[in-house]
Amino acid sequence: AAAGAAPRDLEGLRVVVTAGGTREPIDPVRFIGNRSSGRQGIAVALAAADRGADVRLIAAHVDDGVLAEASSRAGISVERAGTAVELGERVAGAAEAADVVVMAAAVADYRVAEVSPRKRTKETAPDGGITLDLIENEDLLAGLVGRRRDGQTVVGFAAETPGDGETLLERGRRKAARKGADLLAVNEVGWSKGFESDDNALTILDAAGGVVATRNGTKRQVADALWDAVVALRQKE
Ligand code: CTP
Ligand code: CA
User: Fold this and answer.
1) Can you point out the beta strands (E) in 94-198?
2) Of the ligands numbered here, which is closest to the C-alpha atom of 189?
3) Segment Phosphopantothenate--cysteine ligase: which positions (predicted)?
4) Predicted ipTM of the assembly
């Protein structure tokens, strides 16, 4: 639907959306990151605001031009989080008062065990290569699902690179079962697929792995399909 023609079916709902990729510092000048631009998550936040929700957008590293549109929009408050740990603190606090939480952020699975306070230098490193020790980050989505209140809806995203005889749907179903989120939005990514693009293709699964909807289109159209699925799910409960 065109902006302005959006249904106001999220009126009165408090929504938290995370978007973008976390950056895990190695030292003051380097980090481990990922290719998420935050476009899909920001589209989810914009769609929710247009449909009447009160939106808190927690943005990790995102495309600044895309974020600017959300920052200037009534109904959306934007806060920033750099690392997975920071994002975790913010989303846990925000979720306490939220009706719906959408984890669209690409949260780093690992962080650097010992962040160097000064720039690492080759002078003090062994010849031929170094090893970085990584520690697993907390699974924020799993934490939200574990603390979910009655009437609260928790939505996850999964970007997958299917292969080795496993389809996108099979991988998504296993993840849906493992995560326990009310909905899991699965999309395929690859070297030249999914990132920085204006379009996306989503398969939306319920907690049991059942296909609730599939949608190909702009990230905004896909975001609206996700909110349609959230509204339908909340009406059933
Ligand atoms: N997620 C999270 N905390 C993490 C990692 C992921 O909350 N430490 C969330 C993401 O925001 C997303 C969902 O979990 O909504 C699925 O992320 P994904 O990376 O696909 O799942 P993982 O369990 O990390 O599995 P994988 O090994 O495939 O990366
Ligand atoms: Ca992951």
Assistant:
1) 100-103, 110-112, 134-136, 153-160, 183-188
2) 1
3) 15-237
4) 0.99
